Amino acid sequence: METNTQRLLHTFAALADLGQEIADTGDFEEMLRASFHLLLGSLAIRRGAVGEYDRERGELRLIAARGLGESPELVLPLASERARHLASLGSSLTLDEARSEAGNFLEDHKDAFASVEIDLLVPLVVRERLIGAVLLGEKATGEKFTEEDLQIVGALARHIGVGIHSHRLLEEVEHKAEENRRLYEGLRAIYKETVHAFAAAIDIKDRYTQGHSVRVGKYSEIIARELGWSDDAVEGIAIAGYLHDIGKLIVDLNVINSPERFNAKESKEMSRHPAAGYEILAPISHPYADIPLMARYHHERLDGNGYPDGLKGDEIPPGAKIVTLADSFDAMTTDRPYRKRLALVDVLADFRANTGTQFEPAVVCAFCRAFLKEIEGTSKEKRLMKLLGKNYEDVESVSPLLTQLISDLDGGAMAATASSH
Amino acid sequence: MADTTGETPVQARCIGDTAIIYASDYLNKLSGERIERECKRQLESGCRALVINFRDTELVNSIGVSILMGVIDAAEQNTAQLIFSDVNSHTAKLFEMLGLTRLVSVAKDENEALALVAPQTNVAGSTS
Ligand SMILES: [Fe+2]
Predict the structure, then answer these.
(1) pTM value?
(2) Residue B58: other Cβ atoms inside 10 A
(3) Contact call for A42 and B65, based on CB within 8 A
């Protein structure tokens, strides 16, 4: 093979390898070391260095060096006028320019490069900005650098410049992403605090149902987790539970706090709250899906006899079905002005009677499973039992009822009533 | 001193104070730096001559050349002799073209390389 052809192939291969090294953004230091080897090896250059320019500090920081004496200083000051000048020359400067810039650089850093010969300085420039510089010394042949050599070095240097630049960009993007994530988490925390404040406000307005919203949120969370929902969706359903009655904030205070069962007019006023809640929540961009819909539909029934829209079966979002059951459970297990709380046996009888017409069978089943796990001690926490509080002492006694209800629901004994959707 | 990088060790053997190091196919990647490390290790432990055997090296690329330049520097600093052996014709031309042959002797095979080692450093006793 003719020498010139072989030389060409050798440098061409270096350029190809360099492209691959730079595309592989795995490890910045390795990418640079490999690039530096390729640069020196393409022309068998005995000494040299690659430095990255830090604009803010006005420094050239050496990242890789070979044959520059015992310990070349790693950080070298580079004045901004000189940096601007080097940027204007770019990586396609002439041989004379590269030589004279090397001379200037050595003159500025006599102490760092006392006995070292540096023949060329090639700036690394991307988008007219100085990214760094390559310093090159003697070739193995002992011959002086030629214009052709400089063209090869310039081509490789442009690649290395882009490699450094894109790595730094990537770092910046990652940094920004991390910042955004923190910001987002901060916003979520603020949102959650706001939701809790709202839940407290809703419950204060309704003095007979204190703590209702928070409990509904927690019951909903327990059911959703039992149904295998994702962490994010479980968080969302808890929020929906906290906010499901937010519409009560605009319902007449006297109606809410009436010590008797509602008359027709009061019932009508009270039944405004789901749609009103939706109106309040809809304009807010929530970090979780469908929060406004869960408030709107928490009084819907599978059989279509609920309100405000009379939705049937699967027209009702799954989250709303969970909140509905959680809401009913808390209503039945707390004292109301017109009645005392129900015994658990009666609560479960109500569930059994209304599953498939009011309640979604799968949701009832999940609730019973979660309850049973707590009674049997197979779940770590006893969250449900804590929420029920001291008012219920003999909770364990309902475990056969729970087992029976689960098996009836799973076995399809109640499928006839459940098939209405 | 053991190679602390946890890589497959570079194949090397010593004859007197001459070390023979096998370049294998490591040379053309960043992993070739281990050859340079092995050479430096041999020089530090008192070797006066290094023979790098290229019998399993098909091709030397720019990374390989750069690593060999590092070996050349290290040998020069330790005033040790450096000989390349078993270089194929393509690689030999490349070394010639890039000027490496000005800095290193090239031998046909290991025997010729050992014969090239200056007599005072060859314990086996030179016949040349
Ligand atoms: Fe409600």
Answers:
(1) 0.59
(2) 10
(3) yes
